[in-house]
Fold each of these.
Amino acid sequence: MRLSAFAALLLAAPVVAQPVAEPTDSTAIAFIKAEATERGQVMDHATWMTDVHGARLTGSEALDRAQEWAVDRFRSWGVSAELEPWGTFGRGWKSDRMAMSARVSGPDVASQSFPLTAAPKAWSPSTGRASGELVVIDIDDDTLDPATLDVRGKVVLMGSLSDVARGLEPLAQRRDEHELLELANAGLAMTRGAQRRYSPEVLARYRARAARTQAVLTGEPLAILTPSGTGGSGAVRAMQAAVPEGQATGAGGRAAPWTAGVETVAQFAVLDEHANRLIRLAEAGQSVTIDLDYAATFTDEEVVEDNVIAEIPGTDLADEIVIVGGHFDSWHSGSGATDNAAGSAVTMEAARILKAFYDARGEGPRRTIRFALWTGEEQGLWGSRGYVSEHFAPTPGYGEPPTDVLPGHANVSAYYNMDNGSGRFRGVYMQSNEAVRPIFRAWLDAFDDSTAQTLTISNTGGTDHLSFDNVGIPGFQFLQDPLAYFAKTWHTHMDVYDHLDPDDMEQAAAMMATFAHHTAERAEKLPRKAMPDLAGN
Amino acid sequence: MRLSAFAALLLAAPVVAQPVAEPTDSTAIAFIKAEATERGQVMDHATWMTDVHGARLTGSEALDRAQEWAVDRFRSWGVSAELEPWGTFGRGWKSDRMAMSARVSGPDVASQSFPLTAAPKAWSPSTGRASGELVVIDIDDDTLDPATLDVRGKVVLMGSLSDVARGLEPLAQRRDEHELLELANAGLAMTRGAQRRYSPEVLARYRARAARTQAVLTGEPLAILTPSGTGGSGAVRAMQAAVPEGQATGAGGRAAPWTAGVETVAQFAVLDEHANRLIRLAEAGQSVTIDLDYAATFTDEEVVEDNVIAEIPGTDLADEIVIVGGHFDSWHSGSGATDNAAGSAVTMEAARILKAFYDARGEGPRRTIRFALWTGEEQGLWGSRGYVSEHFAPTPGYGEPPTDVLPGHANVSAYYNMDNGSGRFRGVYMQSNEAVRPIFRAWLDAFDDSTAQTLTISNTGGTDHLSFDNVGIPGFQFLQDPLAYFAKTWHTHMDVYDHLDPDDMEQAAAMMATFAHHTAERAEKLPRKAMPDLAGN
């Protein structure tokens, strides 16, 4: 009785559809892995980007030459490549010469000068050889009355004592199981949290600092110094110069130092250890003079900037595309190695590997595979947003909803981005798109790298996949080991070739190529999240 | 039968003398610890040495002013202090201005210049503003024929690609129990091993490098660059310039760059990441020009150099002395914080604490306590050797046996030195003197710091206690946590205040004061090792 009742229950149970196994291509994976490691060239691409062409600031001639090199290198593999303009950026700029030192003078101190490790903030104007009295202003001093400031001709250090790590903890990390499990178990709540980058308190503090900076900027100082905020890493982090309010606005409606006609003061980030010394000297009542020798050149006033777009054409589904990319521009003080020669070299290497594979197979991919090296990313994803606006869905500004949907929009299966440093791929951020989980899981299983198995529903932000995700096209970043990205290299003068990890770069290239190949070959395009509302809806 | 036989055995056992308990002074220890922490000033001493007076290269005016400050500060506590000359050193020197950058030029590369993080080697002559073509010479290339070198007017990078740590391991360490146990269990064999600093292979390699350097030095280059050898730490290590052979010799019979009349080429240590970039650029066939702007001043030709000697006079045993010290001079590129403002500030703080204690007690120490801030240490322990030669036993050169023994020799109970960075005291190197073990054990027990309990028979070298040990006077260094001393700060431009650990500095000052006090108050002077043979015996 009991048994037959149980049998009846079984029979009555709803029929659960067995998921159709996601096809994977073990031949391709084996080829790709061998090509990436045994015949890998990813570090050679990185050498040319970083050591030879150097920093690739948007608008600069160095970026132009590096882009030409990249186009040539794609073509040398038989991969078609072009420069495709995305719009007018602003002014070109480069630093030609930079030295800074401090002199302590006092009746009881020997006349001596010590060099300060510093980097100009981008688009800072020249000072030439000039000297100014040091004035220290605590940027967090709420009692500071901007009206009483007298900084004319002085060198103003805006900041307070910074923490300096003494090295008992490693600067670089690989993700451990605890962290990976947390990501694997993340719910959608975490994806929303990931988009919010600053707490209200932090934001309020930043705004107060900006207000005090405005007071100093308009006081005609010789130069403004700020502590780098990277104490103990040996690195100096420097992005763009701040500008006085009320000047001409450029693209995006912002007054930026790259906007033609905008004037500002020379600004420098200073190694925390050295900024701390200046602050302590002031506290000890010592008079300090800062000697500067700084020259920069503004080149074209209105640069038309390009992305590099390369392509392996598809076959039976050639109208549909999968895109792989990373931004090629960098900040100016290092050579843009982990941010983002890493992603650019991996993108190029994925192209080289896939071209070799399709040549060996004697048949191209089903869908077209594009390789994009964006520019203007550091100033607000300009290159990728321009590309998406032109081809898929126009968006007026960063993070704003699209105003229209173009016919090409439906044809993009996915965009894969790399821009979190050199660290090994440990999995994929699904960017709130739960429907891709079984597909990505099958691809990760087939790729068979025990270090890269984690899928997280969580989002990651701050880079070019957002330009796609923002208009409803599946855009993804891989989950990477952080290494010393935020601790040391991100936007710093230490972002140089030797902080790239060759093994991790090869693994990333292989996995990027595998994901592109599977996306190009699968029966359907990747499932999408709900389309965002158009602007005005 | 058996039992009574056993009892007989017991009775027959030799009588073992119970060791006389080593007296300790808990009142003093409590006072010292409170003074060191609750009213501690050690970091203020360090601020003045490093931030205000800065680098204290032997022979420099900066060192003179810093010594005057130290004398004044000792006196401000009621501790007598004097400058005591130890001999004629050589030339004074300081770097006034230093900037270095590299320009890559080629038909396909944008005209751009990137700064190189570098530091002059001490006593390098000025180059002014000058440019030279980069030539890379692999210093370990055994096929290099010096006769074929053409380096006239060029900037020669002598070196090969350096390893750059990517930060997955911490730069700084505290000693763990494994390491401490190994030191605790060390036998005398280890003490001999500790004296031998280089393997024959390493020595041979250094000699081959030196020979190739000679070939370049005599080829009239504009400048010579060498990789710093500190890759990944962010630091540049720079000591003195190499000199061409066959020139005038100075004190110690060596031709040194500080010897009056010696001429050499400007030499610079370069951050490994930047040297690697230059090497890879050369390998990639790129032409590179190095732009230099470097000015230095040679001051006096023959500096008479001093030690700072301070003293708290003894009472009933005032003729006998205990000495506490560290070297006050530094290299030039940082501000000599861990090497050795640390030891100097701890020495001064020990003086301040002990003066406060004896004042509170109303009675001075039994033995005289001296506080010595040596100079010329970095060039070969000149200051401490000069002092020992003058007062205790003349020695003609570094590590050479004494030629005589002066009456004062018998009066020194012990010398305690600190010169291994800022790291916490974990115990004491007994310097092969087994007889001090029960004494130091009692003092460590009484100091009651669970982190500082290890006694090792092992030796440590390379600093001023050797000047005493070498003539048979007990000379000791404390066993310290290394922190990032050799990894980052030692002799580098990153040897600055923020890499000092305040807690460790306070603990060291308290322990140094305690050891000095117990040595000054105990019934007997410390036991000695066998007296070394005099020269010629």
Note: The CA atoms of residues 430 and 457 of chain A lie 5 Å apart.
Amino acid sequence: MRISARNRLKGTIVEVKKGQTTAHVRIDVKGIIVTTAITNEAVDELGLKAGQEAYAIVKASDVMVGLDN
Amino acid sequence: MRISARNRLKGTIVEVKKGQTTAHVRIDVKGIIVTTAITNEAVDELGLKAGQEAYAIVKASDVMVGLDN
Amino acid sequence: MRISARNRLKGTIVEVKKGQTTAHVRIDVKGIIVTTAITNEAVDELGLKAGQEAYAIVKASDVMVGLDN
Amino acid sequence: MRISARNRLKGTIVEVKKGQTTAHVRIDVKGIIVTTAITNEAVDELGLKAGQEAYAIVKASDVMVGLDN
Amino acid sequence: MRISARNRLKGTIVEVKKGQTTAHVRIDVKGIIVTTAITNEAVDELGLKAGQEAYAIVKASDVMVGLDN
Amino acid sequence: MRISARNRLKGTIVEVKKGQTTAHVRIDVKGIIVTTAITNEAVDELGLKAGQEAYAIVKASDVMVGLDN
């Protein structure tokens, strides 16, 4: 599937940690660790585990801009 | 200010394009272009322009995971 | 690409309306019109136009629940 | 209350599953299962349970568009 | 309608500014100006204008926490 | 850090409740309790606890408008 989300950052999953309903998946994107919070069901459906190539996907309207002072 | 958002990707602004109310700011993060949609007012308040160092900031719950097949 | 977003509602695009930076795309999903606000760039990249089959995609954490009284 | 959110999909709750802080509520909308992640407190305040008529509510800026290929 | 969103801040609309597709509505909540970005269609459907009592509504998962240093 | 998010509501943390992965932090803003859902990691990194001054931060595109009938 092709999606409209502007940001698709390719990397490698380094950690999958499930809670009771929400899981945290961490993806190493060029040395930057991107943290994602998704459902346990998504983790199971996609079979996510450390070592896999994956994308961190973010809609442009969900990105803010910050400046150091 | 320190914020709870898990993802703060440091880069350089490469484009600021204002619409009537919504602006698109593009940030080069290690060669990856991250697109953000923010208000024109935020662009003005922060004085955003190409060439500045800036962060693309994303809350973990706004990040999805994708796999190539 | 396979994505973690839990909600992928299949339908047909019935309207694409571009603003200066933000576009509204309406998708008919089993007779329900779903409105999406995405970037003009996404519309252009995907070549979205009325009549196409498309999915309205929503992360579970972006869905609220409402009750009639 | 009337709200600005463009998408209010009417259906029937088919499952309510609480975690420690986050609950997953599934709503059948014309045969499509919509998954929502909301707080346990919201589930309690609204008294959500399977069998109830309910709406899945989504702001237009939280909907993406996907295409098969 | 009753909704699951945890945050419903009551105030008075002080400004409605439409762009081509996206409008900015500002609500004074106890002296704090809350800025919202919604569709022009929502502004028209609800008939929003300055002087009206209104709520700024936010899902808990869309709120971050910040600290001064 | 200065951020583009339009809404930064100053208040006092009144409760921090951790789940397995997701925490709920409540902030009293001029007598209004604002509920936020953030990661446990953010709570730990910022050292959040009741009694602290803190900001509830929300991007304008994540705020909806509601009316009483």
Note: Chain E has one domain: 7-58.
